[in-house]
Amino acid sequence: MAGSIEAAPPLWLLAELTYRCPLHCVFCYNPLRYAQTGAELSTAQWVEVMRQARALGAAQIGFSGGEPLLRDDLEELVQEARSLGFYTNLITSGVGLTPARAQRLKHAGLDHVQLSFQDSTRELNDFLSHTRTFELKKKVAAIIKQHDWPMVMNCVLHRHNLPHVDKIIEMALELGAEYLELANTQYYGWAWLNRDHLMPTREQLEQAEAVVWRYREQIGSRCRLLFVVPDYFEQRPKACMNGWGAVFLSIAPDGLAMPCHNARDLPGLQLPNVCQQPLAEIWQRSAAFNAYRGEDWMHEPCRSCDERHKDFGGCRCQAFLLTGDAAATDPVCSKSPRHDKVLQLVRSAPERRHIPIVFRSDAESRSL
Ligand code: SF4
Ligand code: SF4
């Protein structure tokens, strides 16, 4: 199949500059074995990746991690991205965004900032990230506003903070966020490991969503509230990445190119590396980017389903994690013969909460 399809260009380049991070979030989306990956790309290598991605057609770049502010060359990379014509986003925990650094990033042309919070309370924010960062994040939000950046506030939701959704929204309004992404936990990486501790109840989700709707009516366009659907409680899967190898290109700190930032753990993919192959060849012809592109790979029930153009059969990483088969129908779908497994995991989560919660750390990552 590789080489048989001329794919449309990627629109989104996610540059995961580093897996290093001062926080230790229990739901971190980085791979479990991040500390066992190779050396980070150099400044010159990232510049080359950006040039090639722009030539391919990518229009937006997200500088992410880990914590991208741990890279001393972030300003240089932002400046280069802007001069190439990218719209630039910084996706950050806030740690390291000092006034001086913010000024340099503004000067470099940074367009947009996404700042994560773990909760509206200091206690839970600091517990979930295993750091004292709550007050710092509030200061960083003020710095972002002082520099006139549009600000997305992001908060991952789970059973511990779903009852605080109203307070989280109030905090976003107080800090002047233009968007608030209320991201129900997606169970990958460290969230997969801590799934039972994070799993909410349906009642919690319904109450939180009702609160979100109430606020939407009250505040109108003052702050856009995005409520990311809670996968395990749905009847249909998300249109993951808008289709495999369709619009999204993720480059890991060690140069691995992936159609989705969770794809590292999928078996048998032989992910290409930007240090060894030109990006155009990776995007168009690599076996990994063509593995689940389009519809030829689908099995039943997706193959003959009239909804396959809407959700592309769901998420390949989720299918693999829940069934051991990356080409299976995402079990979140009620048409999947394995949908029961999702229902069962939700029901039985409280029974496994005696297993200790695991905070993301280099030591844990090396031991996994
Ligand atoms: S989820 Fe938390 S630990 Fe993971 S990269 Fe983001 S801030 Fe760091
Ligand atoms: S069967 Fe497949 S294509 Fe149809 S709705 Fe479910 S996941 Fe989507």
From TrEMBL:
Domain Radical SAM core: start-end pairs: 7-222
Free-text remark on how the cofactor is bound: Binds 1 [4Fe-4S] cluster. The cluster is coordinated with 3 cysteines and an exchangeable S-adenosyl-L-methionine.
Cofactor(s) recorded in Swiss-Prot or TrEMBL: [4Fe-4S] cluster
Chain sites annotated for binding [4Fe-4S] cluster: C21, C25, C28
Highest taxon of source: Bacteria
Pathway: Cofactor biosynthesis; pyrroloquinoline quinone biosynthesis
Top EC class, one word: oxidoreductase
Matches recorded under CDD domains: Radical_SAM (cd01335), SPASM_PqqE (cd21119)
UniProt-listed Enzyme Commission number(s): 1.21.98.4
Keywords, sorted A to Z: 4Fe-4S, Iron, Iron-sulfur, Metal-binding, Oxidoreductase, PQQ biosynthesis, S-adenosyl-L-methionine
Catalytic activity: [PQQ precursor protein] + S-adenosyl-L-methionine = E-Y cross-linked-[PQQ precursor protein] + 5'-deoxyadenosine + L-methionine + H(+)
Ligase is among the record's keywords: no
Pfam families given in the database record: Radical_SAM (PF04055), SPASM (PF13186)
Family to which the UniProt record says this protein belongs: Belongs to the radical SAM superfamily. PqqE family.
HAMAP family: PqqE
Function: Catalyzes the cross-linking of a glutamate residue and a tyrosine residue in the PqqA protein as part of the biosynthesis of pyrroloquinoline quinone (PQQ).
Name the record gives this protein: PqqA peptide cyclase
Naturally occurring in which organism (per UniProt): Comamonas guangdongensis
Recorded name of the encoding gene: pqqE
